[in-house]
Amino acid sequence: MFNTALASASPRTRDGAVNVFVETPKGSHHKYDMDDSGLFRIAIELPEGQSFPFSFGFVPNTRAEDGDALDVVLVTAGTVPAGALIESRLIGVLKMQNDEGGQMARNDRVVAVANMSRIFSSVDTLSDMRDGFAWDIELFFRSYNQMIERPFEVIGRGEKDEAYRMLEAAESAS
Fold first, then answer.
1. DSSP category for residue 46
2. What is the mean pLDDT of residues 78-97?
3. Which end of the chain has the lower number of beta carbons within 10 A, N or C?
4. pLDDT on residue 1
5. Distance of CA 150 to CAs 100, 139, 146, Å?
6. Is the pLDDT of residue 81 over 50?
7. Answer CATH for 2-173 from 3.40.190.10, 3.40.630.30, 3.90.80.10, 3.40.50.300
8. CB 72: neighbour CB atoms within 10 A?
């Protein structure tokens, strides 16, 4: 039943907002993955003192370059539960690559702000975020990949227009 609901979720709402499905909530000490049955499985436990700085999820019914749904870092002021579908707007992209089967492959993360957020209501692009915001998230991903002993590198950043181009490509590929 749960999978059916998610499978029917549109990538965008009627007013153009982007639906983001939250797998791992901000503040979690565990990385969750949703399995084929719609259940959440704990994939990784983070080291003592480390937690996810923002919620992580994906845009339903999309297929990114890596074959998975389009990955999203979701910015909210507080936590939201795993399994929440949050109307958002894309503000940028963190360009990354990591080892996939012995070869480095792109694994970009689109950055979105929840439309419900009052604190981030004036944020329109990645460059509108506080100084050091993107660097902090990149540092988290470096640490995370080091923990699982996977080669990783940051290769750049992009603004809102590039994030929406990635969304359009992922919508077309699904």
1. P
2. 96
3. N
4. 41
5. 9, 14, 6
6. yes
7. 3.90.80.10
8. 29
Q: Closest by alpha carbon to 123, among 160, 80, 81?
A: 160
The secondary structure element, H or E, covering residue 57 is strand 55-59
Query: Which tokens sit at 152?
Result: 């990783």
Given a cut of 90, whether residue 6 has pLDDT beyond it is no
DSSP labels, 63-116: --TTSSPEEEEEE-SS---TT-EEEEEEEEEEEEEEEETTEEEE--EEEEEETT
| 114 pLDDT higher than 70 | yes
pTM over 0.85: yes
